[in-house]
Automatic annotation (TrEMBL):
It catalyses: 5,6-dihydrouridine(20) in tRNA + NADP(+) = uridine(20) in tRNA + NADPH + H(+); 5,6-dihydrouridine(20a) in tRNA + NADP(+) = uridine(20a) in tRNA + NADPH + H(+); 5,6-dihydrouridine(20) in tRNA + NAD(+) = uridine(20) in tRNA + NADH + H(+); 5,6-dihydrouridine(20a) in tRNA + NAD(+) = uridine(20a) in tRNA + NADH + H(+). Its EC number is 1.3.1.91. This is tRNA-dihydrouridine(20/20a) synthase. The record marks 95, 181, 184, 307 as: Interacts with tRNA.
């Protein structure tokens, strides 16, 4: 039986460190109501020994939103998953795909693909602790292990622990010698591996991820798998998602906001956040939110002038969100 949240994950935005924070997610939610959003990876240590509100606070407008956890100790993951559920997240996702050295030192992320039995234990512990879905995001292999059988057996073992949703980044993770950025670009994409997983495990929800940039590509992948997760394209070209609610979620009443309306919708949120967290050097800065909006005009005449206006350090320092309106006006005048 597929996950209870099955159609909701038809399209999602990947967890991306330093990018998909709560401000980014609120911005994305102005463009698409139904696309599934994911947090940056949060380690169990950060939750169990750190500032929980700072890591878990989010705006109710973000739903549906998933918390991605990084860790490898079943008990710690269970406690962290419980915290996520208590804070209102709709899903807990375990990171089994990040190849960074920091993650490797903690013996989690992509390293866990070599320990499918441990991942199964982690999943079971989290499922025992929460009533919401527990999912896994992973690669198709690590280092020179490139056979389809490797990822098939990994998914099979973890599925036996009750995981029903697997998000497949269709590249190997190279643990030594490549940076995280290079790991997103150099290992060859093998979409067919995700397709085969969907055929071999029809009872599971298989979501594909990796360098997917257009609606034509999304449409093609959806002929083979249950869902598509967008990565950096959703960040650099967020307005791509404007018709997703109608196109992929069957929301016949969905009327996409114009880019100008997206900006207008963000202004109250920005003012509220600045008022809550302050405008001085110790509080929230305007750029913490507006930096996520630089790609809103991608592909439009005058987009460069919009980005330049939105990057004006002197205006940003003033902390006045009217900068967004002025940037839009400048773009429009440049394009006229």
């Amino acid at each position: 039986m597929k996950s209870s949240n099955y159609k909701k994950r038809r399209i999602s935005v990947a967890p991306m460190m330093d990018w998909t924070d709560r401000h980014c997610r609120v911005f994305h939610r102005q463009i698409t109501h139904h696309t599934w959003l994911y947090t940056e990876m949060v380690t169990t240590g950060a939750l169990l020994h750190g500032d929980v509100p700072r890591h878990l606070n989010f705006d109710k407008v973000e739903h549906p939103v998933a918390l991605q956890l990084g860790g490898s100790e079943p008990a710690d993951l269970a406690k962290s998953a419980k915290l996520g559920e208590e804070w209102g997240y709709d899903e807990i996702n375990l990171n089994c795909g990040c190849p960074s050295e920091r993650v490797q030192k903690g013996a989690f992320g992509a390293c866990l693909m070599a320990e499918s039995a441990l991942v199964a234990d982690c999943v079971k512990a989290m499922r025992d602790a929460v009533s919401i879905d527990v999912t896994v995001k992973h690669r198709i292999g690590i280092d020179k292990t490139e056979s389809y059988e490797f990822v098939r057996d990994f998914v099979g073992t973890v599925a036996e622990a009750g995981c029903q949703t697997f998000i497949v980044h269709a590249r190997n993770a190279i643990l030594k010698g490549l940076s995280p950025k290079e790991n997103r670009e150099i290992p060859p994409l093998k979409y067919e591996y995700a397709y085969r997983l969907a055929r071999d495990f029809p009872e599971l929800e298989i979501i594909i991820n990796g360098a997917i940039k257009t609606t034509a590509e999304i449409d093609a992948h959806l002929q083979h798998v249950d869902g598509v997760m967008l990565g950096r394209e959703a960040y650099h070209n967020p307005y791509l998602m404007a018709d997703f609610d109608a196109r992929y979620f069957g929301d016949a009443d969905a009327v996409p906001k114009t880019r100008a309306e997206v900006i207008e919708a963000m202004l109250p949120y920005i003012r509220e956040q600045l008022a809550l967290y302050g405008r001085d050097g110790n509080g929230l800065r305007l750029n913490s939110i507006t930096r996520h909006m630089l790609g809103l005009m991608a592909g439009m005449p005058g987009a460069k002038s919009f980005r330049q206006a939105l990057s004006d350090s002197k205006r940003l320092a003033l902390g006045d969100p009217i900068l967004l309106v002025d940037a839009l006006s400048k773009m429009q005048s440049m394009a006229a």
